[in-house]
Fold each of these.
Amino acid sequence: MSEESQPEPQKRTTTESTPAPSPLVHTDEAAAAIIPNGISLSKQKLSAKEDNGSQNDGRQTLDPIEDPNQKIEDYDWADVEHRYHDKMQECAKDEAALFDEFNDTIKLFESWTAAMTVHENDRSYKRLKTRMTYVERDEERLEKKRQHYSKVVSAFESALALLRSP
């Protein structure tokens, strides 16, 4: 077999694209987004190396976990730190946007309550005026009855006075 037809082993790139977690994700999910595939990545490398090792010259390369003499591949912790800070900045921006939206909603609610207060004050004033009108009408009706009873009593008194006089 020629070297061109052999599949290349999987190589780790630092520009792997991972889906951005939502701002309110569990810590383990956020860590999984920062360090994608965790240990399973090295297992994928091992299976790819085993396939290539058996095809190359009959030698089989072992995973550093299985062969203590083999050097463990360095991990790019600076990249993890960089991605962590990027994710945290995204979360901070999302959080700031949520706070801005919340503040806008609060302002709207304050406007609504202020309008409701003015409206309710107008309604309560109209109710007061209506009650005052009913009371004034009742007072006028009672005053007319009082005057009527006064006139009736005066009429009876004058009729009695006429009956008493010879």
Note: The two ends are 158 Å apart (CA to CA).
Amino acid sequence: MPETTPLLPRSNRPPHEHPIFLRVCHSPWYFLGQRSLLLLRSLTAVYLTVVLALALDFEINFKKIGELFAFNASHISFVVQVVYYWVTSLWTLQHLLWPRGCESQGGIAATLKQVFSIPRTTEFNAKNRLAFSVFYTCATTFPFVVTLLYWFVVEETRGHEFELGGVAGLIHLNMSGINALIALIEIMILSSVRKQQPFISHLVSILMICGLYFVWAFVGREITGEYVYRQLDPEYNGVRGVVMTVVTAMSLTVAFLLTSLGLHHLRDYATAKAECDRQNP
């Protein structure tokens, strides 16, 4: 496939001709070729990694939160984004260098190519496609959820941590603001991933992940002796308040999943129209 050719929806193609593994390696826009996409993905991966390292150092060494770092929803969501961008950067690089795939001929180099190559498209990897699609959905949905919850729920009870300025302000802005902007750019510009199908499977999977997070947060209480969020503390928020916090988070997750579907529809419409205008000036 030419470097400048994106994957665009075509009415005469089967609906799932291109697997999601391939679609994350192509932008839907003609102005963004694969080399440019690789550069943007790589820079984003490096940027997110640097921010994560700064956050880890600041939260553990300055704020002394220790193990609570691993139970913070914003941190977990950010780690998912970091992993997503490194994986898709490596896949984009591999697809750019070996668009037809790479056969293992033995040796370390061949082994590394196989490890970092795009999963093969066969009739047996439907579960792998669904798993990665759910992973993609997490990377593009939860940043919006944690950002909204941080600014309108958590920040109100913590006394406006963003006002600390400096490194602290930069960390909070990245993990509860820029993260959502990156997710929006991923959906609208960087990837050609279509709307999540089957929707029910994605909805159930995302809600299960959201529920597992709250189980993980309560595990954090048992390990560290304190709650990662006051809203989860029955003594501070009451049992009813804790339940409402969980329900609110899950409701926001569903809302942003539906918003993501709408954004995918909007992008597909815009790219199809751009292709039509380009072919019929």
Note: Helices lie at 20-23, 34-62, 73-97, 108-115, 126-158, 166-190, 199-224, 234-279.
Amino acid sequence: MSVKFEKETVRDTPVPGGRREDIAQKVGERLTGGMSQTGYLAAYLQQLQSNPLRTKMLTSGTLSALQEILASWIAKDVTKHGHYVSSRVPKMAVYGAFISAPLGHLLISILQKLFSGRTSLRAKILQILVSNLVVSPIQNSVYLGSMAVIAGARTFHQIRATVKAGFLPVMKVSWITSPLALAFAQKFLPEHTWVPFFNMISFFIGTYVNSHTKKKRLAALRRKHYGDGRRDD
């Protein structure tokens, strides 16, 4: 007795949205590397370990310039030529690359060395306190002073007045966000990724503060302009 097996033809059934899912999967694998660890994120993390300061400088410089452009776009703050890219953009890039990144690299490295190998809850809380009471005040003072110079301040008195006026409001924001960010970094991130992570947090906060400041300045200019116009009438 013979048994005959007939060949069955199996056709692939198109999955709704399959092409979009494939594209999303390919993009995700390219960014993260998937299982191969060859994506952009993996390459970036490798550069953070092999060339930490240079990578942090490029990251901070790029984010600082992008923050200025994005804040101008949100606030509708255009130049006299109708562009969102003003002379502040390259200055912010220089600040991010040559001031913010090296300073953050130094301070975070010191903070990590002070608490190296200490994983208790008490040590983590103490690290957060040192960050908020020592690291953040230094970084915020340098940030405010640099912003004063970028805005046109040229004397020590002008820079000091800017730092004094903005220090407490900026510190209040730091005291809210910094403990949460540092606690997250302690729990989930390797130490060499801390500075870029904090740069991303600063990017979002800085974009909000910068755009809010621009909106207030533009509103004040409009009030002055229309007010002067009414007096002329």
Note: The helical segments are 18-32, 40-50, 52-75, 88-114, 121-151, 156-188, 194-232.
Amino acid sequence: MAPIPKMMKAIQIETTGGTEVLQYKDIPVPTPKDNELLISNEFIGVNYIDTYFRTGLYPNPKPMILGREASGTIAALGPQVPGSLGFANGDRVVYMGTSAYAEYTACPAEKVMKIPQGITSSDAGAAFLQGLTALTLVEETHKVQSGDWVLVLAATGGVGGWLCQILRAKGAKTIGTVGSEGKVDIAKQQGADVVVVDRPGQGDVLKTVKECTDGQGVAAVFDGVGKDTFERSLECVARKGTVASFGNASGAVEPFLISKLSAKNAKVARPTLFNYLFTREELEHYSAKLFKMMMDEKFSVRIHDTYPLADVARAHTDIESRKTMGKLLLKP
């Protein structure tokens, strides 16, 4: 392997704000501490949560390097990395952690997974966080059963596309919403059975839900949009169903009276992926399941675009536009 340099390029922010706060600069390559791996990043995932840290919706100490996931190769092992994890220099790996918007990242070894043969590094980088989010939503937040009707908002988005594919593999029936006619066929290819263009004067999501379910509503709503759609999601869910509000693309959901849930004995969840993958055993279980489904079901890994690391501002602008389809990646 090439020698590890002393300095690297990274995206750092010192204050919150718009894309103008994203600084492309030279900083020292981190030294892996106890139980850490130094990873040479090859493909870095861009996720909507990155914009929350940039804008200050999710407070975090500054300065900080953005980024929650990447794929690459192990450049060095820090002290006391457990041999039971089986890591070696040069291994192809994917991880979820922090400070991924950089050429190198020091990451706790317990948060890193080897990429199996048969899956490319770009596909692993594109699939890991969003694929695991979708998988844990349908396994943990609401255990979807074969034959269930489910509503997925933003069905061609990063998590939405994975939800549609996984739900199809589970035998569920999916109603997907999209923002334009141009996304309808893509949502159907991803696995949505019924697709609604969710724009004023074009599609009536609640009407479609009632028509598909004989007025009963869906067993689960997977809503990553947030403020603009939450009340409608409560209307769409069936008796004893679940509204999983897992994102804030339109803003944070406003406070509501919990007594509203009693009309249907409905449940509302606000899950985060990292609390489903808190232990090494949970990460290994769901990673293995995702990788197996990707290969066995021949899932489509839709990559919207791959941007140079220095062009991160354009990537953030694109993801915030809510017009992208699939994963956005950065390449150092």
Note: DSSP finds nine helices and 16 strands in the chain.
